[in-house]
Fold this sequence. Notes:
The chain is an alpha/beta fold. The chain has helices spanning 3-9, 35-42, 57-70, 81-90, 107-116, 132-138, 161-171, 220-233, 239-270, 290-296, 311-321, 351-356, 373-385; strands spanning 74-78, 98-102, 123-127, 143-149, 174-178, 196-200, 214-218, 276-280, 303-308, 326-327, 337-339, 363-367. The strands form two sheets. The protein has a seven-stranded mixed sheet with strand order 1-7-6-5-4-2-3, sandwiched between helices. The chain has a five-stranded mixed sheet with strand order 8-9-12-11-10. Strand 2 (98-102), helix 5 (107-116) and strand 3 (123-127) form a beta-alpha-beta unit. The mean pLDDT is 96. The protein binds pyridoxal-5'-phosphate.
Amino acid sequence: MHKQTQAIRIQSAQSSEKEHSTPLFLTSSFTFDSAEDMRAAFADETDDNIYSRYSNPTVDEFVAKMCMLEGAEAGFATASGMAAVFNSIFALLKTGDHLICCSSVFGSTYALATKFLPRYGIECTLVKANNPTEWEAAVRPNTKMIYLETPTNPQLEIIDLEWAGAFCKKHNLIFNVDNCFASPVLQNPIAFGADIVSHSATKWIDGQGRVLGGVVVGRADLIKEIYLFCRNTGPSMSPFNAWVLSKSLETLDVRMERHCNNALAIATALEKNEKISWVKYPHLPSHPEYATAIKQMSKGGGILCFELKGGIESGRKFLDALELLSMTPNLGDTRSIASHPASTTHSKLTEEERLSVGITPGLIRISAGLENVQDILNDIEQALAKS
Ligand SMILES: *Cc1c(COP(=O)(O)O)cnc(C)c1O
Protein backbone atom coordinates (compact mmCIF):
# COMPACT_ATOMS: atom_id res chain seq x y z
CA MET A 1 0.00 0.00 0.00
CA HIS A 2 1.05 3.61 -0.50
CA LYS A 3 2.80 5.44 2.32
CA GLN A 4 -0.17 7.85 2.73
CA THR A 5 -2.47 4.89 3.44
CA GLN A 6 -0.03 3.17 5.80
CA ALA A 7 0.49 6.41 7.78
CA ILE A 8 -3.25 6.30 8.48
CA ARG A 9 -3.76 2.55 8.88
CA ILE A 10 -0.72 1.27 10.84
CA GLN A 11 -2.14 0.76 14.32
CA SER A 12 -1.42 -1.16 17.51
CA ALA A 13 -3.76 -4.15 18.00
CA GLN A 14 -7.39 -3.27 18.70
CA SER A 15 -8.48 -3.86 22.32
CA SER A 16 -11.61 -5.82 23.29
CA GLU A 17 -13.52 -2.50 23.05
CA LYS A 18 -13.04 -2.48 19.26
CA GLU A 19 -12.16 1.25 19.27
CA HIS A 20 -11.79 2.85 15.83
CA SER A 21 -9.27 5.61 16.58
CA THR A 22 -5.89 4.55 17.90
CA PRO A 23 -5.86 3.70 21.65
CA LEU A 24 -3.57 5.40 24.19
CA PHE A 25 -1.68 3.10 26.55
CA LEU A 26 -0.99 5.56 29.36
CA THR A 27 0.71 3.08 31.68
CA SER A 28 4.19 3.02 33.19
CA SER A 29 4.49 -0.77 33.33
CA PHE A 30 2.94 -4.03 32.09
CA THR A 31 1.93 -7.18 33.98
CA PHE A 32 2.84 -10.86 33.47
CA ASP A 33 0.81 -14.04 33.96
CA SER A 34 3.68 -16.01 35.47
CA ALA A 35 7.17 -15.70 36.87
CA GLU A 36 8.36 -17.64 33.83
CA ASP A 37 6.77 -15.12 31.38
CA MET A 38 8.37 -12.25 33.24
CA ARG A 39 11.77 -13.98 33.29
CA ALA A 40 11.54 -14.59 29.54
CA ALA A 41 10.65 -10.95 28.85
CA PHE A 42 13.62 -9.71 30.89
CA ALA A 43 15.88 -12.20 29.13
CA ASP A 44 14.80 -10.69 25.76
CA GLU A 45 13.37 -14.07 24.74
CA THR A 46 9.98 -12.42 23.96
CA ASP A 47 9.13 -8.88 22.87
CA ASP A 48 6.49 -8.39 25.59
CA ASN A 49 6.34 -4.85 26.94
CA ILE A 50 7.91 -4.52 30.40
CA TYR A 51 8.17 -0.86 31.29
CA SER A 52 7.40 2.32 29.28
CA ARG A 53 10.97 3.61 29.51
CA TYR A 54 11.88 0.59 27.31
CA SER A 55 8.81 0.30 25.08
CA ASN A 56 5.08 1.06 24.98
CA PRO A 57 2.49 0.08 22.32
CA THR A 58 1.49 3.70 21.57
CA VAL A 59 5.13 4.78 21.22
CA ASP A 60 5.86 1.69 19.10
CA GLU A 61 2.98 2.61 16.78
CA PHE A 62 4.46 6.09 16.23
CA VAL A 63 7.93 4.60 15.63
CA ALA A 64 6.54 2.00 13.20
CA LYS A 65 4.92 4.76 11.12
CA MET A 66 8.14 6.81 11.13
CA CYS A 67 10.19 3.78 10.01
CA MET A 68 7.70 3.15 7.22
CA LEU A 69 7.80 6.82 6.09
CA GLU A 70 11.63 6.99 6.14
CA GLY A 71 12.24 3.49 4.75
CA ALA A 72 14.14 2.56 7.93
CA GLU A 73 14.70 -0.83 9.58
CA ALA A 74 14.18 0.32 13.18
CA GLY A 75 13.70 3.38 15.39
CA PHE A 76 13.46 4.83 18.87
CA ALA A 77 11.29 7.78 20.02
CA THR A 78 12.54 10.42 22.43
CA ALA A 79 11.07 13.21 24.56
CA SER A 80 12.35 15.98 22.26
CA GLY A 81 14.19 16.51 19.01
CA MET A 82 17.39 17.35 20.87
CA ALA A 83 17.22 14.06 22.78
CA ALA A 84 17.03 12.31 19.39
CA VAL A 85 19.99 14.30 18.00
CA PHE A 86 22.10 13.86 21.16
CA ASN A 87 21.53 10.12 21.46
CA SER A 88 22.04 9.52 17.73
CA ILE A 89 25.58 10.85 18.19
CA PHE A 90 26.51 10.07 21.80
CA ALA A 91 25.29 6.45 21.84
CA LEU A 92 27.42 5.62 18.78
CA LEU A 93 30.68 7.48 19.51
CA LYS A 94 33.25 7.14 22.28
CA THR A 95 36.27 8.99 23.65
CA GLY A 96 38.88 9.36 20.91
CA ASP A 97 36.37 9.34 18.05
CA HIS A 98 36.06 12.25 15.63
CA LEU A 99 32.87 13.76 14.21
CA ILE A 100 32.55 15.94 11.10
CA CYS A 101 29.59 18.28 11.53
CA CYS A 102 28.16 20.81 9.09
CA SER A 103 28.52 24.31 10.58
CA SER A 104 24.93 25.30 9.66
CA VAL A 105 23.05 23.14 12.14
CA PHE A 106 20.34 23.83 14.73
CA GLY A 107 21.66 26.05 17.59
CA SER A 108 21.55 23.37 20.31
CA THR A 109 23.22 20.85 17.99
CA TYR A 110 26.00 23.39 17.39
CA ALA A 111 26.45 23.72 21.17
CA LEU A 112 26.49 19.94 21.53
CA ALA A 113 29.20 19.56 18.88
CA THR A 114 31.40 22.45 20.00
CA LYS A 115 30.93 22.56 23.80
CA PHE A 116 29.62 19.28 25.20
CA LEU A 117 31.00 16.42 23.06
CA PRO A 118 34.64 17.65 23.48
CA ARG A 119 34.19 17.30 27.28
CA TYR A 120 33.95 13.56 26.74
CA GLY A 121 36.92 13.44 24.38
CA ILE A 122 34.80 13.30 21.19
CA GLU A 123 36.46 15.73 18.79
CA CYS A 124 34.46 17.65 16.24
CA THR A 125 35.39 19.54 13.06
CA LEU A 126 32.87 22.01 11.63
CA VAL A 127 32.69 22.23 7.83
CA LYS A 128 30.80 24.58 5.49
CA ALA A 129 27.62 23.18 3.93
CA ASN A 130 28.62 23.11 0.28
CA ASN A 131 32.40 22.92 0.37
CA PRO A 132 33.50 19.34 -0.57
CA THR A 133 37.19 20.31 -0.22
CA GLU A 134 36.66 21.20 3.45
CA TRP A 135 34.83 17.92 4.06
CA GLU A 136 37.61 15.89 2.42
CA ALA A 137 40.30 17.77 4.37
CA ALA A 138 38.48 17.14 7.67
CA VAL A 139 38.64 13.32 7.44
CA ARG A 140 41.06 11.72 9.94
CA PRO A 141 41.87 8.09 10.78
CA ASN A 142 39.59 8.32 13.87
CA THR A 143 36.64 9.96 12.04
CA LYS A 144 33.51 7.87 12.70
CA MET A 145 30.52 9.95 11.66
CA ILE A 146 29.30 12.93 9.63
CA TYR A 147 26.30 14.93 10.76
CA LEU A 148 24.26 17.37 8.66
CA GLU A 149 20.89 19.03 8.07
CA THR A 150 19.39 19.88 4.70
CA PRO A 151 17.77 22.32 4.07
CA THR A 152 19.86 24.21 6.61
CA ASN A 153 18.45 26.76 9.04
CA PRO A 154 17.90 29.65 8.39
CA GLN A 155 19.69 30.08 5.03
CA LEU A 156 18.01 27.02 3.41
CA GLU A 157 21.23 25.77 1.81
CA ILE A 158 20.75 22.38 0.17
CA ILE A 159 23.42 19.71 0.69
CA ASP A 160 23.54 17.00 -1.97
CA LEU A 161 22.58 13.83 -0.05
CA GLU A 162 23.72 11.57 -2.88
CA TRP A 163 27.17 13.20 -2.79
CA ALA A 164 27.30 12.94 1.03
CA GLY A 165 26.24 9.28 0.88
CA ALA A 166 29.10 8.49 -1.53
CA PHE A 167 31.54 10.48 0.66
CA CYS A 168 30.57 8.39 3.73
CA LYS A 169 30.84 5.14 1.82
CA LYS A 170 34.30 6.07 0.52
CA HIS A 171 35.60 6.88 4.02
CA ASN A 172 33.53 4.25 5.87
CA LEU A 173 31.68 6.78 8.05
CA ILE A 174 28.27 6.66 9.72
CA PHE A 175 26.02 9.09 7.82
CA ASN A 176 23.69 10.89 10.26
CA VAL A 177 21.05 13.36 8.98
CA ASP A 178 18.62 15.63 10.87
CA ASN A 179 15.65 15.54 8.47
CA CYS A 180 13.43 17.86 10.51
CA PHE A 181 13.18 20.75 8.01
CA ALA A 182 12.00 18.59 5.09
CA SER A 183 9.80 16.14 7.06
CA PRO A 184 9.66 12.45 6.08
CA VAL A 185 7.08 13.04 3.35
CA LEU A 186 9.32 15.35 1.25
CA GLN A 187 12.77 13.79 1.62
CA ASN A 188 14.13 10.37 2.65
CA PRO A 189 17.90 10.53 3.34
CA ILE A 190 18.15 6.73 3.73
CA ALA A 191 17.42 6.43 -0.02
CA PHE A 192 20.68 8.38 -0.56
CA GLY A 193 22.79 6.29 1.82
CA ALA A 194 22.06 7.77 5.27
CA ASP A 195 22.50 5.29 8.15
CA ILE A 196 20.70 7.32 10.80
CA VAL A 197 17.92 9.94 10.46
CA SER A 198 16.67 12.05 13.35
CA HIS A 199 13.64 14.31 13.61
CA SER A 200 12.29 16.92 15.93
CA ALA A 201 8.66 15.72 15.86
CA THR A 202 7.84 19.04 17.57
CA LYS A 203 7.87 20.75 14.16
CA TRP A 204 6.01 19.50 11.03
CA ILE A 205 5.20 16.06 12.45
CA ASP A 206 3.04 17.46 15.26
CA GLY A 207 2.43 20.46 13.04
CA GLN A 208 0.01 22.04 15.49
CA GLY A 209 2.36 23.50 18.11
CA ARG A 210 1.22 21.17 20.93
CA VAL A 211 3.87 18.67 22.02
CA LEU A 212 7.63 18.12 22.02
CA GLY A 213 8.99 14.90 20.60
CA GLY A 214 11.85 13.34 18.69
CA VAL A 215 12.66 10.13 16.87
CA VAL A 216 15.76 8.39 15.51
CA VAL A 217 15.36 5.81 12.74
CA GLY A 218 17.84 3.90 10.60
CA ARG A 219 20.02 0.78 10.38
CA ALA A 220 18.90 -1.91 12.84
CA ASP A 221 22.40 -2.51 14.31
CA LEU A 222 22.92 1.21 15.03
CA ILE A 223 19.40 1.70 16.41
CA LYS A 224 19.98 -1.24 18.74
CA GLU A 225 22.99 0.58 20.24
CA ILE A 226 20.91 3.75 20.60
CA TYR A 227 18.01 1.79 22.13
CA LEU A 228 20.22 0.09 24.74
CA PHE A 229 21.78 3.43 25.65
CA CYS A 230 18.37 5.18 25.90
CA ARG A 231 16.71 2.32 27.78
CA ASN A 232 19.29 2.85 30.50
CA THR A 233 19.55 6.66 30.43
CA GLY A 234 15.84 7.52 30.09
CA PRO A 235 15.07 10.07 27.31
CA SER A 236 12.00 8.04 26.22
CA MET A 237 8.92 9.65 24.66
CA SER A 238 5.77 9.90 26.78
CA PRO A 239 2.94 7.60 25.51
CA PHE A 240 0.62 10.62 25.52
CA ASN A 241 2.91 12.56 23.16
CA ALA A 242 3.30 9.44 21.00
CA TRP A 243 -0.49 9.21 20.72
CA VAL A 244 -0.72 12.89 19.64
CA LEU A 245 2.11 12.39 17.14
CA SER A 246 0.77 9.14 15.72
CA LYS A 247 -2.56 10.87 15.02
CA SER A 248 -0.58 13.77 13.48
CA LEU A 249 1.15 11.40 11.05
CA GLU A 250 -2.30 10.52 9.64
CA THR A 251 -2.54 14.08 8.27
CA LEU A 252 1.14 14.91 7.63
CA ASP A 253 0.99 14.28 3.89
CA VAL A 254 -2.01 16.56 3.25
CA ARG A 255 -0.69 19.22 5.62
CA MET A 256 2.75 19.29 3.97
CA GLU A 257 1.14 19.73 0.56
CA ARG A 258 -0.64 22.90 1.75
CA HIS A 259 2.41 24.17 3.70
CA CYS A 260 4.60 23.75 0.59
CA ASN A 261 2.09 25.28 -1.82
CA ASN A 262 1.65 28.28 0.49
CA ALA A 263 5.42 28.72 0.92
CA LEU A 264 6.06 28.54 -2.82
CA ALA A 265 3.28 31.05 -3.57
CA ILE A 266 4.62 33.49 -0.93
CA ALA A 267 8.23 33.13 -2.15
CA THR A 268 7.17 33.67 -5.77
CA ALA A 269 5.15 36.80 -4.92
CA LEU A 270 7.92 38.27 -2.73
CA GLU A 271 10.53 37.99 -5.50
CA LYS A 272 8.81 41.03 -7.04
CA ASN A 273 8.75 43.15 -3.86
CA GLU A 274 11.08 46.18 -4.01
CA LYS A 275 11.80 46.18 -0.22
CA ILE A 276 13.55 42.83 -0.56
CA SER A 277 17.00 42.13 -2.00
CA TRP A 278 16.59 38.36 -2.35
CA VAL A 279 14.19 35.51 -1.56
CA LYS A 280 15.30 31.94 -0.95
CA TYR A 281 13.10 28.87 -1.32
CA PRO A 282 14.44 25.43 -2.33
CA HIS A 283 12.02 24.95 -5.24
CA LEU A 284 12.42 28.47 -6.71
CA PRO A 285 14.61 28.37 -9.85
CA SER A 286 16.63 31.29 -8.39
CA HIS A 287 17.85 29.10 -5.47
CA PRO A 288 21.60 28.41 -5.83
CA GLU A 289 21.12 24.64 -5.29
CA TYR A 290 17.79 24.40 -7.14
CA ALA A 291 18.82 21.31 -9.16
CA THR A 292 19.81 19.39 -6.01
CA ALA A 293 16.62 20.47 -4.23
CA ILE A 294 14.52 19.16 -7.13
CA LYS A 295 16.49 15.90 -7.12
CA GLN A 296 16.10 15.06 -3.43
CA MET A 297 12.96 16.88 -2.22
CA SER A 298 9.53 16.10 -3.71
CA LYS A 299 8.36 19.61 -2.72
CA GLY A 300 10.27 22.68 -1.48
CA GLY A 301 9.18 22.58 2.18
CA GLY A 302 7.26 25.02 4.36
CA ILE A 303 10.08 27.48 5.13
CA LEU A 304 11.27 30.43 3.07
CA CYS A 305 13.54 33.32 3.91
CA PHE A 306 14.30 36.74 2.49
CA GLU A 307 16.60 39.69 3.06
CA LEU A 308 15.17 43.16 3.77
CA LYS A 309 17.15 45.93 2.09
CA GLY A 310 16.75 48.06 5.24
CA GLY A 311 18.76 45.71 7.52
CA ILE A 312 18.26 45.23 11.29
CA GLU A 313 16.01 48.27 11.76
CA SER A 314 13.69 47.16 8.93
CA GLY A 315 13.55 43.66 10.40
CA ARG A 316 12.35 45.01 13.73
CA LYS A 317 9.73 47.24 12.07
CA PHE A 318 8.56 44.30 9.94
CA LEU A 319 7.93 42.09 12.98
CA ASP A 320 6.10 44.89 14.81
CA ALA A 321 3.84 45.61 11.81
CA LEU A 322 2.62 42.01 11.43
CA GLU A 323 -1.01 41.50 12.37
CA LEU A 324 -1.73 37.87 11.42
CA LEU A 325 1.66 36.09 11.50
CA SER A 326 2.88 34.97 14.92
CA MET A 327 6.15 36.17 16.47
CA THR A 328 7.49 33.01 18.10
CA PRO A 329 10.68 30.98 17.75
CA ASN A 330 8.92 27.75 16.66
CA LEU A 331 8.31 26.55 13.10
CA GLY A 332 6.14 23.94 11.41
CA ASP A 333 2.76 24.99 12.80
CA THR A 334 -0.75 25.43 11.31
CA ARG A 335 -0.18 29.14 12.08
CA SER A 336 2.28 31.12 9.96
CA ILE A 337 5.30 32.37 11.87
CA ALA A 338 7.86 35.11 11.16
CA SER A 339 11.24 35.46 12.83
CA HIS A 340 14.11 37.93 12.59
CA PRO A 341 17.21 36.13 13.95
CA ALA A 342 19.53 39.20 13.98
CA SER A 343 17.40 41.10 16.52
CA THR A 344 16.19 38.06 18.51
CA THR A 345 17.77 34.58 18.72
CA HIS A 346 21.20 35.78 17.52
CA SER A 347 21.20 39.33 18.93
CA LYS A 348 23.97 38.54 21.46
CA LEU A 349 26.47 37.64 18.73
CA THR A 350 28.64 40.27 17.05
CA GLU A 351 27.75 41.23 13.48
CA GLU A 352 30.79 39.27 12.29
CA GLU A 353 29.78 36.13 14.21
CA ARG A 354 26.25 36.41 12.83
CA LEU A 355 27.50 36.68 9.26
CA SER A 356 29.71 33.62 9.74
CA VAL A 357 26.61 31.51 10.48
CA GLY A 358 24.57 33.08 7.66
CA ILE A 359 22.50 35.52 9.75
CA THR A 360 22.44 38.64 7.59
CA PRO A 361 21.02 41.85 9.18
CA GLY A 362 17.70 41.93 7.31
CA LEU A 363 17.09 38.16 7.23
CA ILE A 364 13.47 37.18 7.85
CA ARG A 365 12.42 33.52 8.11
CA ILE A 366 8.81 32.59 7.39
CA SER A 367 7.24 29.26 8.36
CA ALA A 368 4.19 29.05 6.10
CA GLY A 369 1.10 27.90 7.98
CA LEU A 370 -2.14 26.43 6.69
CA GLU A 371 -4.13 29.71 6.60
CA ASN A 372 -5.51 30.96 3.29
CA VAL A 373 -2.41 32.00 1.32
CA GLN A 374 -3.87 35.37 0.28
CA ASP A 375 -4.38 36.34 3.94
CA ILE A 376 -0.75 35.41 4.75
CA LEU A 377 0.55 37.36 1.76
CA ASN A 378 -1.60 40.41 2.52
CA ASP A 379 -0.16 40.54 6.05
CA ILE A 380 3.46 40.14 4.88
CA GLU A 381 2.99 42.81 2.20
CA GLN A 382 1.37 45.38 4.50
CA ALA A 383 4.19 44.79 7.05
CA LEU A 384 6.82 45.19 4.32
CA ALA A 385 5.26 48.52 3.35
CA LYS A 386 5.87 49.73 6.95
CA SER A 387 9.38 48.31 7.34
C1 LIG B 1 13.73 22.33 16.59
C2 LIG B 1 14.82 21.57 15.98
C3 LIG B 1 15.56 20.63 16.72
C4 LIG B 1 15.31 20.39 18.19
O1 LIG B 1 14.06 19.85 18.44
P1 LIG B 1 13.30 20.02 19.86
O2 LIG B 1 12.08 19.18 19.66
O3 LIG B 1 13.04 21.47 20.06
O4 LIG B 1 14.21 19.47 20.90
C5 LIG B 1 16.56 19.93 16.07
N1 LIG B 1 16.84 20.15 14.77
C6 LIG B 1 16.16 21.04 14.03
C7 LIG B 1 16.52 21.24 12.60
C8 LIG B 1 15.13 21.78 14.60
O5 LIG B 1 14.47 22.69 13.86
